[in-house]
Amino acid sequence: MAELDLGQHCQVEHCRQRDFLPFVCDGCSGIFCLEHRRRESHGCPEVTVVKERLQPETQASCACSLEGCAEKAPVQVVCPACQRSFCLRHRHQSEHRCEKLETAQPRMAATRKLVQDIIGSKTGQTARKRRKGAQSSATAAKVALMKLKLQAHGDPSLPQTERIYLQVFLPKGSKEKSKPMFFCSQWSIGKVIDFAASLASLRNDNNRFTAKKLRLCHMTSGEALPLDHSLEAWIAKEDCPLYNGGNVILEYLNEEEQFLKNVDSYLE
């Protein structure tokens, strides 16, 4: 009796099973039984090609240029001063010890001197009023601090001993007039701005070459605080300090603007 035609043999070695309706792989064009129809089960070379093609994409990331940092960012963050890329934690000039940071110091020093000259130009009765006003501001900040601790938003993982509470007045045109927040005393002013912008859902283009940048301004002098200074340093200042429990202003300024005008209008 002639052998019945039961189809073709499976091409997998040691299988050789016959199938009446064999499966033809669209990757390697081989003929296989039902058990070995999947590409992985019969060692199809097309599977290896696909894996090799996907591997560079899954490993794609941007390494931090700071020596000793092994973090990688999903997107490239380029410092506008030194043109090197860094992770999110080291994107500020002060945090990656930017080699171009010194070029900005003369302007910052001139700005600080201008503020000191403005404050020091008033003598006699005006000076006494200023000292009395500073004492009043410190007292008002202590009273406000108790309320801020109950309402402020911030990173709950920060230790209480490192928290600085501020009433942050938001840019003109914002949905909210102000928002109570707390920050780490060790943070730079640049990091404080980024964190505050995130809490208040504000547009923050400080890492881009745009016309206006978000700056943190002193409520008394209107000075735009230098981005590389620490928050703790401004709390400890003798002349025109920030107060834990005091007020600050977030506003968009042009690159050349170092002072905010009409400071009193934010309190109206």
From TrEMBL:
Pfam families: UBL_ZFAND1 (PF25327), zf-AN1 (PF01428). GO terms for cellular component: cytoplasmic stress granule. One of its GO terms (biological process) is stress granule disassembly. Keywords: Metal-binding, Zinc, Zinc-finger. Residues 4-52 form the AN1-type domain. One of its GO terms (molecular function) is zinc ion binding. PANTHER family: AN1-TYPE ZINC FINGER PROTEIN 1, ARSENITE INDUCUBLE RNA ASSOCIATED PROTEIN AIP-1-RELATED. This is Zinc finger AN1-type containing 1. It comes from Molossus molossus (Pallas' mastiff bat). The lineage of its organism: Eukaryota, Metazoa, Chordata, Craniata, Vertebrata.
